[in-house]
Prior knowledge:
Elements: H1 2-25, H2 29-49, H3 55-78, H4 84-103
Helix pairs in contact: 1-2, 1-3, 3-4
Amino acid sequence: MGWLFVFFAAVSEMVGVVGLKMFSQKKTWRNGIIYGTGFASSFVFLYIAFKYLQVSIAYAVWIGVGTAGAVLINMVLFGESRSIGRIVSVGLIIVGVVGLKALS
C-alpha cells in the first residue's frame, strides 16, 4: 500500500513541476493552482506513505521517480535538451530507484 502512495506522490510532483514551468512562463491562476496543488498533494501522499515504508526508502524513491519523470516530461512537452548525457543520467536514476525498491 505504501508504494502506491509513493507513486501518487511522484506523479503529483511531476504535475507540480509542469505547473511550475507553465507558471514561470505565464502567471495565471490556472497555472498557479496546478503548481500549488501538484506539490501540496505530493507532500500529502508522501506523508501517508511514511506510515507504511521506511522514510529513507520512500523519500529516495519519491525524489528519484519525480526527478526522472519531470526531466522526461520537460523533454517531451517543453523541448528541453535530449542529449545522450541527460538520457543516460535519467536511466541511472531509474536503476537506482529500482534497486532501492528491490532491496527494501
